[in-house]
Amino acid sequence: MPLFSNAYLIFIMTDLELATHAALEAGKLLRQHFGSAATVDESTDHDIKLALDKESQDLITGILLGACPGDALYGEEGIAGNQESPRQWIVDPIDGTVNFFYSIPHFCVSIALRVAGEIVVGVIHDPMVGETWTVERGGPALLNGRPISISQRATLGESILYVGCGKDEATLRTGIERFHRASLRAKKMRMMGSAALGMAYVACGRLDAYIESRISLWDIAAGQLLIETVGGSVDLSPVPGSADAYSIVASNGKIPLEEIL
After folding, report:
1. So where are the chain's domains?
2. Rounded distance, CA 93 to CA 20, Å?
3. SS3 at position 175
């Protein structure tokens, strides 16, 4: 018989260990269902909501609030816990839902912890590739336990940029115009369908910048801490009239982006 139960071990984890555990468990759920028929709860012109989004968030909520019942949780699929708490978990249970639905293996689970308004923990887990980015404020940014660093590329001509296009007419137009301008100058352009993975890729030097005119907090909270920890730059501008929606320019802090914004 084990000396400690799994429930007890979860209870004594650090915040980073707890977030990583929750992301990995949600990743197992997503891998299990990947490639099979998924129940669509809502479908709009440029987005899909799956029943699995909520199932994944419920799993994460149970782990996080089970260990920290006094905390708040703010996720793409709703809120839970004590919303007066200074400790708030920020969760995207499937970032890249459309990719997942179409059996494109590029999506992730993103979990961050915000304490008194400051992001202090970030985890991004790609269950298909088996990559997990972790960071805690004041500590190193890691990929599968190994330190990461941003790219050292300093010109657009040698850079790879990810420009997102959003989901409404205005953000689509802005994104396409930026994509066109950047395409004339950058080495290559990418439009990948997962903001959190895009930011993780910037943090570990695979991409040089990620730009989008409207993105939600749960998509970028963990990635922001990753990029800033390794010395990159994240510029967020609130979208007027929208709670926790931002225009974002995240980069290695070395390439000039003014020409395409």
Report:
1. 6-147, 156-251
2. 13
3. helix
pTM of the shown model: 0.91
**φ and ψ at residue 10, rounded to 5 degrees:** -60, -40
Query: Going by CATH, does the domain composed of 6-147 fall within 2.60.40.10?
Result: no
In angstroms and rounded to an integer, the radius of gyration of the C-alpha atoms of the chain is 18
Q: Are 119 and 224 in contact (CB under 8 A)?
A: yes
Return the DSSP state at 12: T
Is the sign of the CA dihedral 232, 237, 242, 244 positive or negative? positive
Query: pLDDT tens per residue, the chain (261 residues)?
Result: 444 445 555 567 899 999 999 999 999 999 999 987 667 656 655 566 788 999 999 999 999 999 999 999 999 999 999 999 999 999 999 999 999 999 999 999 999 999 999 999 999 999 999 999 999 999 999 999 999 999 999 999 999 999 887 667 777 787 778 888 878 888 999 989 999 999 999 999 999 999 998 899 999 999 999 999 999 999 999 988 888 889 899 999 999 988 777
The residues, ordered by sequence, that sit 6+ positions from 261 with a Cβ below 8 Å of its Cβ are: 178, 211, 249
Same fold, 6-147 and 156-251: no
> CA 140, CA 137: separation in Å to the nearest integer?
8
The hierarchical CATH code for the domain 156-251 is 3.40.190.80
Residue 5 CA, chain-centre distance (Å), reads 31
Residue 152, both tokens? 């050292």
Q: Which of 247, 195, 222, 203 is nearest to 60 (CA)?
A: 222
CB atoms within 10 A of CB 128: 16
